[in-house]
């Protein structure tokens, strides 16, 4: 019976998601996992979330999505993948059931796209947290270039405007189309990000859209 229910879940995901499509190998790996019950529940929760908020207003879409993913456990990449910095796809994040700040922001980005939030209003943001040494990533919703962004942060269940997040210092924001630096926490100037040897964002997009990872 559980297997039958999960196949129904799989069909739902295939029909309604562009960023999370489970394959036969995914199902096999989940079935062999000690944590398969928890994985099933997270995936079911993802489907229910998208169905529930599809016709909600923007504020509710942002809040429900932020809250759903913030319930997933945080963990450093060095402990989970034995590397310093790994950007997980939304499917990978949901199956693993734990991740770091980039994983939360990326999953929220793709989920909000799928419930109708325009791509040009969503930006991943690299920020510094005051009194912290490492960089942090959050998701921003920006209504227009003259508006203060709203911050979806895995460190907070409450969504606040960027000017109220005195603890965050923005470095650069980006989505699939463009990148900007901010001034007074508003969009200031378009820039091109130097990713170094590996463009982690393009690599992530290829894994989501082309490799179904």
Order of helices and strands: HHHHEHHEHEEEEEEEH
Helix content: 40-55%
Poorly predicted sequence stretches spanning 5 or more consecutive residues? none
Overall CATH class: Alpha Beta
Major sheet strand order: 6-5-4-3-7-8-9
Our count of helices gives: 8
Instruction: Report the CATH topology name.
Output: C8orf32 fold
Q: Judging from the principal axes of the Cα atoms, what is the shape? A: globular
Q: What count of structural domains?
A: 1
Oligomer: single chain
The computed structural class is alpha+beta
Integer-rounded radius of gyration: 17 Å
- The span between the termini is 27 Å
Question: What CATH architecture do you see?
Answer: Roll
List the defining traits of the structure above:
C8orf32 fold; globular; alpha+beta; 213 residues; seven-stranded antiparallel beta sheet
Secondary-structure map with pairings?
Layout (H helix, E strand, L loop, with lengths): L1 H15 L7 H8 L4 H18 L4 H13 L2 E2 L2 H4 L9 H7 L1 E2 L1 H14 L7 E8 L5 E7 L8 E4 L2 E6 L6 E7 L4 E5 L2 E5 L9 H10 L4
Parallel strand pairs: 1-2
Antiparallel strand pairs: 3-4, 3-7, 4-5, 5-6, 7-8, 8-9
Helix pairs in contact: 1-3, 3-4, 4-7
What does this molecule look like?
The protein is of the alpha+beta class and 213 residues long. It has one domain (2-209): C8orf32 fold. The chain is built from 8 helices and 9 strands. Strands 6-5-4-3-7-8-9 form a 7-stranded antiparallel beta sheet. Strand 8 and strand 9 (186-190) form a beta hairpin. Helix 1 (2-16) packs across helix 3, helix 3 packs antiparallel against helix 4 and helix 4 runs antiparallel to helix 7 (101-114). The model has no long low-confidence stretch (mean pLDDT 89).
